[in-house]
TrEMBL record:
SMART domains listed in its UniProt record: CobW_C
Any Pfam family the entry gives: cobW
Signal peptide positions (record): none
Keyword hit for rRNA processing: no
Keywords attached to this entry: Chaperone, Hydrolase, Nucleotide-binding
Chain ranges of the CobW C-terminal domain: 239-328
Listed CDD domains: CobW-like (cd03112)
GO molecular function: hydrolase activity; nucleotide binding
Protein name: GTP-binding protein
Amino acid sequence: MTAGERDDERGGAVTARIPVVVLAGYLGSGKTTLLNHLLRNDDGRRIGVLVNDFGSINIDAMNVAGQVDIAMSMENGCLCCAVDADGVDRMLERLAYPGAPLDVIVIEASGIAEPRQLVRMVLSSQNPHIEFGGLVEVVDAAEFDDTRARHPELDDHVRLADLVVVNKVDRVGEADRDRVIGAVREIADGAVLPAERGRISPGILFDDVEARDFGTRQLSFADLEEHDHDHDRHMHAAYESMEFIADRPLNPSAFLRFLNERSRGVYRIKGPIDFGPSGDDRRFVLHTVGVYAAFEKTRWKGPRATSLVLIGTDLDTEDLTRRLQSCVDPDPDTIDELGILNLARHLDD
Ligand SMILES: Nc1nc2c(ncn2[C@@H]2O[C@H](COP(=O)(O)OP(=O)(O)OP(=O)(O)O)[C@@H](O)[C@H]2O)c(=O)[nH]1
């Protein structure tokens, strides 16, 4: 049987609809990490991905590219607020068509998308080759209390999900871990799974919709009807994003100072940084989530440049750009050993 076919009850092959899984979760909770884990452990399943980056630099799309059969990206805005479902349908049409070589499609929502809207779009899709494959909500165990306090709508997202992944359990002690899992279980109607670095079993998401062990219920329009599309209630109504691009290297010490002095409004920063000869040939990918900051070390493959997306509330874009601009190294050939040493304390393992 090819992808997209399965046996019907009489033993004949019928064209199956491709399940579309919506992967949601607040900023930095670990959606891309989970998606990359699934892509690396696909057990031969062919996975199409539709990534919704909030900023216009496709950092998330960049982070899944290379691991995926087909990746498409919708940028600069929020998928959940596409004026109508047609835009999403057009993207899905390019992934799901008769004979499409895919077993599953995952839509990775931006960290401030409204999952209810995304699910509604998939359910109302006119595409005869897809079916809704479930809503997965990723929760950051370390940030859960704070995020919930700032965004009470998070409870709603957790409640709607078919599967809630309580991620980053390595970042909290055992007592907090149990408390957060307990709190999530109290709200969630679907299954709840603790995870580290998004490492859940791919079968949980990708097996036949009917065979899922978490598929005790699937969202319907009735579940989604509670609120009309009230844009002001969306998390992202309060958020904005900006980009910073530099083709000259940044100085590590100056950049660490910028990081330490950043305002609380700058919740999320992500993207690669070029520290020039100080960084050797290492490509440092920065991730900040609230006060937490980590660099992932990779190697440059293409041209070296810094490209950062900053997401938060009340961003003073002029001031931030000026501060970042002042991190550009006036003397990149002098190696900033102390800076790189200090930076190493933030390296992700
Ligand atoms: N310690 C720890 N860090 C994690 C875990 N999962 C993800 N991270 C880190 O958290 C940061 C954010 O992860 P992403 O996967 O980019 O989060 P995201 O939800 O895709 O982010 P947005 O798309 O910006 O909302 C990265 O630095 C990850 O390496 C985990 O289980 N434990």
